[in-house]
Amino acid sequence: MIVPVYNVEKYISKCVASLIEQTYPNFEIILVDDGSPDGCPAVCDRFASQYDNIRVIHQENRGLSAARNAGIDAARGELLSFVDSDDFVEPVMLERLYELMDQTGTQIASSGIAVGERIDGVFSAEQALRCFMRELTNLTTCAWGKLYRAALFEDIRFPEGLIFEDFATIPLLVDRAGSIAHTGDILYHYRDDNSESITHARFSPKLMDYFTVAEGVDTFLRERYPELLRDAKNRRTRCAVSFFRRYAEAGTTDKAIGRALVRTTRRGILPYLFSGYNPKSKAFGLLMSVCPPFAAALFRRA
């Protein structure tokens, strides 16, 4: 289990405690201290001194992707799992995912999250990717909450320097695996109240990384699953609307970012209006396309 650690001193102990309690009998925990400026390095070292199956890697701050990649490179087992250090998991998570993988013969097993329609079963790569692009089920591109055959990562790593690294990487792994076994049971608990997380901040220019990642995903889909390109475009439009709302709420003054978000929304608004996304998001997107200043003013008051 690979755990990137950065600036989560008030969460890390609960996270690691939930990993120690796993009912699966044979596993290691790799805590990757990504140059954390708080007390996390000492907490990690203390856990490693107490438990033989915990190892710590200390490195200069290079970001979440680099921390995960360091864990992948250091891992010795045949299976890999990722846990964010401000989250926690059910004691049976590893055992349940291993059983699911073993029973179905798949190379990836996944558990649900507390959003979207619950689904269960074994899904082909195309079916899973459709779920990823449409965002309607609790089978998502999150790296965490899954168990992987380590061999899948032979030449695949998370892109460093970008956020939304899961969206760039998980589709490639599922494509290579050919299928994924998924249980809708919630075995992983994602914390959404960590204000230090950039994806939870009101707005950050780093959110624009999504569109860089999305271009790479489009290239991959164009080569392997062209029938999913429309769904990918709708997902990009949904993100543009969501980011514009946060941009307006924060009173961001970088007009170039606002124009880029409006431009992306306008390009995709027609198919987006007929997608399965939230009607309110579609209405906001239409308003953005027609009158961006009014949409911004409305978002600021919301």
Q: Mean pLDDT score, rounded?
A: 95
According to CATH, the homologous superfamily of the largest domain is: Spore Coat Polysaccharide Biosynthesis Protein SpsA, Chain A
Q: Which structural category fits the helices and strands?
A: alpha/beta
User: Rounded to an integer, what's the Rg over CA atoms?
Assistant: 20 Å
The total strand number stands at 10
**CATH architecture descriptor text of the largest domain:** Alpha-Beta Complex
Number of helices: 11
Number of domains: 2
- Approximately how much beta-strand content do the residues carry? 5-15%
Specify the helix fraction band: 40-55%
Q: Please report the first level of CATH classification, the CATH class of the largest domain.
A: Alpha Beta
CATH topology of the largest domain: Spore Coat Polysaccharide Biosynthesis Protein SpsA, Chain A
What would you call the shape?
Answer: globular
Termini, distance in Å? 40 Å
Strand order of the largest sheet: 4-8-6-9-7
| Poorly predicted parts | none
Task: Please give the largest β-sheet.
Answer: 5 strands, mixed
* Run of helices and strands: EHEHEHEEHEEHEHEEHHHHH
